[in-house]
Amino acid sequence: MFSLFYGLWKYIFKRDEFYVLILGLDNAGKTTFLEQTKIKFNRNYKGVNLNKITTTVGLNIGKIEYKGIVMNFWDLGGQHELQSLWDKYYAESHGIIFIIDSADIERIEESKAAFENMITNEHLVGIPLLIVANKQDILEALSLDRIKSIFKSSAPQIGKRDIHSISVSALNSQGITESIDWMTNCIKRNVPSRPPNNAEE
Predict the structure, then answer these.
(1) Could you report the per-residue pLDDT of 137-186, keeping only the tens digit for each?
(2) What predicted TM-score, i.e. pTM, was given to this entire model?
(3) What angle do helix axes 176-189 and 30-41 make, rounded to 10 degrees?
(4) I need a surface site. Which of 74, 145, 156, 191 has the fewest CB within 10 A?
């Protein structure tokens, strides 16, 4: 009898579970973006002091429930020597959020190179891609249009997929809700090509 009720409970409360990678160079604001996402979408999460976030070495994780699905975020270290580890997570991912430091003009070409190396991986074909122009609160930051023009030559590698670019200030939480809303809708639409795992409440 217990197994019958447990099976019914699982059926009623199970949630489709998806995995989203947050990638980009070190100091692009990936961890701040993740923290603001957790603050906005997890009711009782207080977060950490955003001004004390340091460069990620390894992996930061986060989880939210939104629009009836569970989304797990993997924020991976962006130092050059750590980028070789990104592809270990590609096959399990359902979406990519690539974060660019709009204010670090000297490294914009380095960011583009990391992006192109990532997007050509066969495990990411067709996976939804959100390009985030972060740190738009800084006066010297490149505009979203300028960043799009710099990354325009990467279009052939991007291929056919859901793609969107957005101006964000992760520190001020500007653009966070819109980013997650877009990614959630795309992932749900993309389920036939990369099915979810099942999670239980």
Answers:
(1) 999 999 999 999 999 999 999 989 999 999 999 999 999 999 999 999 99
(2) 0.89
(3) 80
(4) 156
Instruction: Give yes or no: 79 in active site.
Output: yes
Annotated binding site for GTP: 24-31, 78, 134-137
Nearest to 58 by CA among 32, 37, 36, 89: 89
Distance CA 189, CA 191 (A): 6
Catalytic residue (choose from 36, 79, 83, 157):
79
> How many Cβ atoms are within 10 Å of 91's Cβ, its own excluded?
11
The pLDDT tens digits of the residues spanning 26-83 come to: 999 999 999 999 999 998 887 777 766 666 666 889 999 999 999 999 999 999 999 9
Annotated binding site for Mg(2+): 31, 56
Residue ranges per domain, the chain? Answer: 16-200
Specify the length of the chain in residues: 201
Fold classified for 16-200: Rossmann fold (3.40.50)
Nearest in space to 114 (alpha carbons), one of 2, 1, 30 = 30
Known binding residues are 24-31, 56, 78, 134-137
